[in-house]
Amino acid sequence: MIRIVLPHHLRTLAKVGDEVHVDLNGSATVKAILDALENKYPMLRGTIREHGTLKQRPLVRFFACGEDISHESPDAPLPDAIVKGEEPFFIMGAIAGG
């Protein structure tokens, strides 16, 4: 079971609490987590990744065990603490401006 913390606006859209859980049928990667999340909560499709290309949206960041992994390959394996459910996987909106 993977624990995921979503930003407030996505929690509101999906009508969920602070943390959601997904089960994976294979290796734990960002791509696998997002696939499972979008399957469980279809209203989130297109909010984290582009509809057609499935590329990460520009102002979305992913954190695992306190590390920003947004620029790593979506197929890279995630840390054991995420896989075991000891630590949550964070999806956050980046702050832009001047």
Describe the protein's architecture and organization.
The chain is of the alpha+beta class and 98 residues long. It has 3 helices and 5 strands. The chain has helices spanning 8-14, 30-40, 80-83; strands at residues 2-5, 19-22, 60-64, 67-68, 89-93. The chain has a 5-stranded mixed β-sheet, covered by helices on one side. A hairpin with a 2-residue loop joins strand 3 (60-64) and strand 4. 20% of the residues are buried. The model has no long low-confidence stretch (mean pLDDT 94).
Sum this structure up briefly.
The protein has 98 residues and is of the alpha+beta class. It is built from three helices and five strands; from the N terminus they run E-H-E-H-E-E-H-E.
Major sheet attributes: 5 strands, mixed
Which stretches are low in confidence, meaning pLDDT under 50 for 5 or more residues running?
none
> What is the level-2 CATH architecture name?
Roll
What's the structural domain tally? 1
SS element count, helices: 3
N- and C-termini, Cα separation: 39 Å
How many E-type strands? Answer: 5
Identify the CATH class: Alpha Beta
- What letter string, H or E per element, gives the SSE order? EHEHEEHE
CATH level-four homologous superfamily name: Beta-grasp domain
Shape: globular
Bin the strand percentage: 15-25%
Q: List the strand order in the largest sheet.
A: 2-1-5-3-4
Radius of gyration equals 13 Å
